[in-house]
Amino acid sequence: MNDRTVYPLGKRRTLIVFAGLMLAMLVAALNQTIVSTALPTIVGDLGGLQHYSWVFSAYMLGLTVTVPLYGRLSDFYGRRPFFALGIVLFSAGSIVAGLAPSMEVLIAGRAIQGLGAGGLIPLGIAVIGDMIPPRQRGKWQGLMGVVFGMSSVVGPATGGWIADNTSWRWAFFVSLPLAALALIVVWVGFDASQVKEKHRIDYLGAALLTAAISTGLLGSAWGGVDYPWASPVIVGLFAACALLTIAFVLQERRAPEPILPLDLFRNRTFAVAQIALFGIGAAIFGTIMFVPLFVQQVLGESATSSGAVLTPLMLGWIGSSAASGQIVSRTGRYRPVLLAGPPIMAIGLYMLAGMGPDSTAFEATRNVVIVGIGTGLLMQNFTVVVQNAVPRTLMGTATASTQFFRSIGATVGVTAMGAIMLARLGASEASNAGPAELANALHPAFALGIMLCALAFVATLFLPHTELRSTMEEPVVETARAQRQAA
Superfamily for 3-201+257-486? Predict the structure, then answer.
């Protein structure tokens, strides 16, 4: 089997495109992790602790509502223009957030960043699916995880150093030169050719999906914090979300080319993966957002130190992502790896939930490393599994869906953990909480992460085995066992 059979673009061209993807991923990953450790300082400067979750939630809201659109439109019209659009929007949001005079403007900038990030990550992964067959894809996806993780190692420490030694605004400006370089590489390096076909874009479905997500996430973010859970505003938002979701499903069933083809959910591999990724996203991003707060406010460490605690999490993520990608590529067996991930994450979260003011930064580091190892076994490998289970014509849509459900989970998880923390503290007492009070408020938030890991594990138990294809032309073939399970 020669290189052209395995890599349709040829190995050299594949490496060039892959380098462009890694550079764009570096931009997104650096910004997110830099902001996470600078965030306590940012919130202290521009607003109160009650706004802490919103800086993340606004970003995830913008990302979540656009991911399905980027995926479907790129299936129709090619990856390059939408990948470039993502970089431009992400950079514009960085400028707005970096110049923000108030928390409201900062949150708006984060939302714009999210609108761009909705294209960067899923389309980058989709391009890998376009040019590398599933049997080889595990190690390439693992390398992408390494790049993401390496940037995440630099990010927390850099964010902490920026917060301690200069203006927090540089946390948003520092990635702009890289974004400009990524835009050039992407535009020149990506294949611009595409099949010239006329498509009927499902604008109504896109509008209904955006409205359903927005109302649901707003209800989750405001409930118990800005409004009581039983208030007309929150009940109305959730009711609107339910009605809009029903309308969206009905629209997708009749649309000639739906934004999110519902037939995908008849594929057990696809459906199971989305449930698991929801739980994983909620657990890991909740950890990333609230561990720096714990280290700074409970353990009394500096922002730089809180970044140093997150760095080992990413190192654990890197190591297990690379190693598990090699294992999956060499053996073709992914279920044992995916089943091991949630329990390992849960062990780390259990240990985080037991920490208090007398704990040390070393203990926090040990615990987040365990969480990172479990996460690295899951993220990239679930993407490989989903891409292997769908035809190439739906590669962008399926890949974007994995990011979509992970993002929904992340937004719900961070919002729920923030709501739990504030409910335990009382919104009026949040700014003056002592280390013991803040620690007690964060314990149930980490406990929620354990339950989310349990959800991911149970879902993964129902994942069938589908043979990983060795070339791009091979059809999807389920094992006899999987066929019996599906019958």
Answer: MFS general substrate transporter like domains (1.20.1250.20)
